[in-house]
Amino acid sequence: MTRTSRRFLAAVVTMVAAAAICVSLLAYYANHVLANSAGFSGRAVNVVLSNGVESLIVDRVTDRVTEVVGNESSVQPQIDDAVRGALSNRQVSAEIREAAESLQSQLTSGDANSLTLTLPDLGSSLASSVESTSPELADELRGIGTVTVLDVPIPAADASAFHDLSTAGSDSSLLLVLTSALAVLALVISPDRRRTILALGLGAFLSGLLAAAIYLVGRGFVVHEFSGPDARTAARAVWSVYLGGLETWGLVLAAIGATVSVVAALVRSGRADPQAHRAAGLDRKGRF
Fold it and tell me: In 142-263, where do the E strands start and end?
């Protein structure tokens, strides 16, 4: 194989490897977020406790409570404190985790059509929070049944995207092996390994920036899909909690790729191509 052919083939393999780096990063992160039910449900609790969603839930539950006890300004602060305390209650957190695990199963199967959060028997948790200061209010709170604090439809396109990400995530290990093999192959056939390493580093750098851009730009597109301020608040919180790590991973990959490229650009290749040595030798002989 001629030097020109090797250079061309190495360039093609390097470009495929660079694309595979980006796909592998997205697939591995999808697997990290969607496949682990414990991690998925733990993030759901973090969504509920985020500022925007917590305030939304407090308002919803407070409205339901005032329907029962009346809109009395004297008990309003107690109700707000009781609701915020109930959201941190271990039993309520367990119910949120259970609902999240059910949602995860629906997302991975492509059957999810709504983002729903209900808090069954919330009255008991609220009553225990105010029992010592206001027994009468506690008795009224016990009469509150299940409270639906969030019921947001999931657009079909978003549900399909979640399903596709889950499918790609299940193949993340295979993609990592394939990416590594392509990088090694590019180095083996390349007549200028320093240049190939530089190109691979540049590919990793661009892949990392693309991943960060997907997080930042995608958030705007996804949030825009939902109508109503409450739905958008919930969508923004879900996107940040579940996909915020993608921005970090992307920037780390970009930093690694940039470092590799800079080092490769500064360090001269330690191995020259044998054909180049022979050509240089013949040239010197011809001059003599």
Answer: 147-153
Structural Rg of the chain based on CA atoms:
28
Q: At what angle do helices 37-49 and 51-69 cross, to 10 degrees?
A: 70
Return the DSSP state at 190: -
Q: Indicate the DSSP class of residue 110.
A: T
**Eight-class DSSP state of 228:** S
Q: Which residue type is seen at 162?
A: F
Domain extents in the chain: 3-33+172-287, 49-157
> pTM above 0.85?
no
Q: Which two tokens stand for residue 64?
A: 């339901």
Residues 52/237, Cβ–Cβ less than 8 Å: yes
pLDDT in tens, 59-97: 777 777 777 666 656 666 777 777 777 777 677 777 777
Per DSSP, 88 falls in state T
- 149 phi and psi, to 5 degrees? -100, -15
